[in-house]
Amino acid sequence: xxxxxxxxxxxxxxxxxxxxxxxxxxxxxxxxxxxxxxxxxxxxxxxxxxxxxxxxxxxxxxxxxxxxxxxxxxxxxxxxxxxxxxxxxxxxxxxxxxxxxxxxxxxxxxxxxxxxxxxxxxxxxxxxxxxxxxxx
Amino acid sequence: xxxxxxxxxxxxxxxxxxxxxxxxxxxxxxxxxxxxxxxxxxxxxxxxxxxxxxxxxxxxxxxxxxxxxxxxxxxxxxxxxxxxxxxxxxxxxxxxxxxxxxxxxxxxxxxxxxxxxxxxxxxxxxxxxxxxxxxxxxxxxxxxxxxxxxxxxxxxx
Lengths: 136, 157
What we know:
Chain A is an all-alpha fold. Chain A contains 6 helices and no strands. The mean pLDDT of chain A is 82. Chain B is of the alpha+beta class. Chain B is rod-shaped, with a radius of gyration of 35 Å. The chains are: A mainly alpha, B alpha+beta. Chains A and B meet through α2, α5 and α6 of A and α2, α3 and α4 of B.
C-alpha cells in the first residue's frame, strides 16, 4: 500500500514537471488542449485563480514581478498552499501524519477565506485601483 | 518519620519515609501491604495512606472544552482547498475552503462529530473541484478531437 502511494506521488510529480516544462516551452497561449478558465470563458469575469497559468509561465521564465501582476493573491497563496499540501502528502505516503503541520489556526483560516472571496469580487470591479488586481 | 511495614504477616522496619517510598516505587512493597507509623490508629494498606498516595483533586465544575491537546486527528483540507480553488479555477473550491475553515473551530469547541463531518465535506468538495476541472479538460479534448478530425479528413491541405 505504502509503495503504491509513493508511486502515485512520483507519477503526479512527473505530470506536474511535464506540464511546467510544456508551459515554459510553449507559453500560456501555446497550449491548445488547455481550455483555460471556464468561469472566465462563460461569464467574462475573473475568478480567484484567473491569470495563474500566465503567472506560472512568467515565474518559470524568472519574471516574478510580471507574475504578481497576473495574480497577486495566487502568487502568495499557491506556494504557501503547495508547501502545506506537500507536508500532507509526505504524511500520507508514510501512512501517518507528520508532527509538523502548516497550520494557520482558526482565525488565519477565516482570513484566507475572506481574502480569496474578497479578491474574487474586487478584481472584477472596473475601476482603478481594483483593475490592478485583474490580469492585464 | 519512621515507618513500620508488614510483608506476608511479618512486621518489618522501622525505615525512613524515603526508604519506604523507594520500596513502593520499586514494587518491593505493594499498595496492599500494611504500613504503620507512630500516631496512626491502626495499620493501613499503603495505598490508603494519604501521605504516601495523595488523592488527586477531583475535577470540579465543567471540564475544559479542549481536553486533549492533540485530540483525534481531523485533517482540515485547507491547503488542498486553496490549491483546487486557484489551480482548477472553479467555484467548487470555495465551498471546500468554507468547510475546511470550519473544521478546527468545531474541533476546538469539542464538536468532534461536526468537525469530522466538515472535514469530510471539505474533502468531497476538493475531489469534486478536481474532478470537474479534470473532466472539463477531458471534455475539451473530446470536443476538440471530434471537431478537428472531420476537418482534417474532409479538408486535406
